[in-house]
Specification:
homodimer; alpha/beta; Aldehyde Dehydrogenase, Chain A, domain 2; 2 domains; four-stranded parallel β-sheet; EC 1.2.1.41 (chains A, B); Ald_DH/histidinol_DH (chains A, B)
Chain lengths: 415, 415
Amino acid sequence: MSEVVEKAKIAKQVCRKLSTTSSEAKNQAILAIAQGLLQNIDVIVAENQKDIDAAIANQTSQSIIDRLILTEARIKDMVEGLEQITQLEDPIGEVLLEKALDSNVLMQKVRVPFGLIGIIYEARPNVTIDAIGLCLKTGNAVLLRGGSNAIHSNTCLVSIVKKALQGTEVSPDAVQLIEGLDRKLVEEMLTLNQYLDLVIPRGGAGLIQMVVQKSTVPVIETGVGNCHLFIDKEAQVSMSIDIAINGKTQRPAVCNSIETILVEQQWARNHLTTLNDALIEQSVKILGCAKTQTLDSRVESATEEDYYTEFLDYIVAMKIVESVDQAIEHIEIYGSRHSEAIITENRENANKFLNEVDAAAVYHNASTRFTDGFQYGFGAEIGISTQKLHARGPMGLPELTSYKYRLYGQGQIRQ
Amino acid sequence: MSEVVEKAKIAKQVCRKLSTTSSEAKNQAILAIAQGLLQNIDVIVAENQKDIDAAIANQTSQSIIDRLILTEARIKDMVEGLEQITQLEDPIGEVLLEKALDSNVLMQKVRVPFGLIGIIYEARPNVTIDAIGLCLKTGNAVLLRGGSNAIHSNTCLVSIVKKALQGTEVSPDAVQLIEGLDRKLVEEMLTLNQYLDLVIPRGGAGLIQMVVQKSTVPVIETGVGNCHLFIDKEAQVSMSIDIAINGKTQRPAVCNSIETILVEQQWARNHLTTLNDALIEQSVKILGCAKTQTLDSRVESATEEDYYTEFLDYIVAMKIVESVDQAIEHIEIYGSRHSEAIITENRENANKFLNEVDAAAVYHNASTRFTDGFQYGFGAEIGISTQKLHARGPMGLPELTSYKYRLYGQGQIRQ
C-alpha cells in the first residue's frame, strides 16, 4: 500500500469520531497544538534551517526563501492564529433548517464536517498549521501535501502536532502529512475518491490548474487573482489614484492585488498622466495598449498575453476602453473571477458593473485588497475560492462544512 | 468548431443578460414554453414514436421503453411541472448576508446564477423540460445532452422551447441541445471549463462514474442510491415490516428505495421469518448472509458484490449484524451516501445512527422513500446529490445558484 493510501485510510478511520467530538474538546486539542509549538520553537527553527540551506544551495529565488523562513515571531503568529480559531463559533451541528413534512416527519438540515480534506500547497510552512487548525475546528481530518522545499519544516511541525494531540480527545491520526517527495503521490491523492471528500489546492496558477485537470475528487479552486480596476468616466481622480496605488502596490504578490487597470477614454484623456505619475513614483512598470501609449509615452507596449497575466509584481497592464460595457467584456475574457472594482460617481454604471461582472467579489469605489477572510470578518481563511460551486470568495469555517438531513418519524411510510 | 463548443459559446453569451432578467420575465418565458408544448402535443407524440420504433427495432428493454414514452398525459405533466416552477420564489438576488466591514465598506452576499449548466442524462425525455424550466427560473443557461435513444423527442422538445422563447425576454440561445450522437461529444463537454460552470449527470451508476472520472468542470454527482434499512434490537415489528415493504416495493426502480436490510441478531431470531413472509408475499427475492439463511431457508446466498449492488428491482440483500456499530460500519463500506434508515425504540442507538452514518439523508423510524425534493417541500428537484460539496440530498432551486460578494465603498483602501 502506498504512503498516500495508507495515510488516507488511517485518517478516514477517525472521521466518524471526529465528526461528533464536542467543540470544547476540539478547542482543547487546538490549544494543545499551540502549546506544543511554543515549547518547540528551537526545534522548528533548526529544522526550518535545513530547508533554507537546501533552498540556498538550490539557488531558489529570494521571494520563495522569504516565504519558507520560520522565525520565532512567525511561529508565534501561527500560535496566535490557532488561539483565534478556538475563539470562533463551531459551525458543526448548526441546524440550518427545521420543518415538519406533510407526513409529519420532522426534518432537520444540519451542518456536518466533510470528513477527510486534502490540502495541496506550496512553499509556506505556516499553511500546515493554519490548515490543521481550521480542519480540526470543523471536525475534519486532514491529509497534507506541502512543497518539497519545506519538507523538514512540515515534517517537524506535523510531528509536534501529533504529539500534542496525544493527550486530547482528537486522535493524532486525524492529521497526516505525505512525506514522500515523488510528484506521483499528488496524482494518487487526486483520485482517492474512496477516502478523500474534498481537495483544496493552495498555490500558484500551475498547481491549481494541475489539480483541476487531474482530480476526480471534488475540488475547490483557490487564489489565482487576475483582478481589474475599471476607472469610469465619472470617477473621482484622487479616489481612483488612491485605489490604484493601494490595489497594485500595497502587497503586489497577493491574489487580491490589481493586475490590469481599465480606463474610460475621456477620463484617460484628462487624467491618465496624473494616474501614471503616481504609479511610476511607486516604481510600477506600466504595459499599455496603443491608445495608452499615445496618451503617455512612458507606457510600454502590452501583449495580448499580458492581459492574462497575474504579475504579482510592480507591473500593471493598462487599457483604454470606451464604456463600462467594454470593461465588463474585457474582464469576462481575461479575468479569473476573483475581485473586480469600478470607480465611478455614476450609480447606473456602478450597478451594471456589480451585477454583470462574474467574479467572487465586485467593488464600487473600494480597493480589491479587501477580499480577505479577516477583512470580511470571518475570523479565519483557508483560501479564496474562484469557482462557483460550494464556496466563492474568502472561505472561513462554514465553507469547510457540508450538511446532512436528519429525519425523525414514528413509522411513517411514503404514500 | 465542434457542435459542443459552438453551442456552449452561444449559450454563454446570453448568461450575463439572463443573470439580471427579472423574475416576472423568466416566469413569462417558462409559461410560454408550457404553452408551446400544449400546442404541439401531436408533433411531440409523433416524434417520440420515432424513438419508440427505433428502440423496439433495437430490442431495447421494456423498462427503458417505458421511460422513453411521451403520451398526452405525460406531456401535460411536464406542462404542470413548468407551471409549478413559475409559482416558486426566485432565489436570484436574495441577500444572504449584509454587513459593514471595519472600514465601513458595505458588504452584501447575494445569490447569483451559476451561468451555464450542463446536464447529461439518459432515456427520460421529460428531464429535458424539467431541466430547462429549473435552469431558466434560476437565471442559468443550459446545455443539454440527452440519451441517443431519445434524440427525436429531445430535438422536437428543444425546438418547441426555442420557438416559444422567441417572443419573450429570455433569449432562445439560453437553451442548447447537443444533437450529435458521438460519445466523444460528452467528453468534450466535460472539459469545457471555459464556458461551462457546472455539470450535473443524471442517470445510472455508469454514467455518473464516467462523468466524475472525466470531468474537469465542477460536477454534482446525483442519484446512485444503495440505501439501507437497519432494524435494531428494539425495533417495533409491524413498523419494521411496513417500512421495509414501502422502501423496497413501492417503486423499486428509484434511487431512494432500499437495497439492503441489516437486521440486529436478536430481533432476527425472533422476527426474521415474519419480515421475510411479508417480503416474499410482495415477490421480493432475498439474498442473505449465512446467518440469515440459517434462520430462514427461503433466503438465497448473497455474494460480496450483492451488498454493493443497487438492484432497482424486487431483490433485497440481507445481513444479520450484532449491533448498531456493525450496521454503521457496513453502511460506511457499502453505502452510496444517499439515504439510510434505522428502526428502533432505543433513543441512544437512533442518535448514534443519525450522527455517525455519513449520508445525505438519515432516517429514524421513517421510510427512505421520503428523500425527494417535493416530499421535502422544495417544490422542485433537479436531482439528489450524493456528494458533499455544494449540495447534498434533494436539490431544489437554491442549489442551482452560487453567490457573489458586492461591496460598496466611498473610496476606502486597505490599511
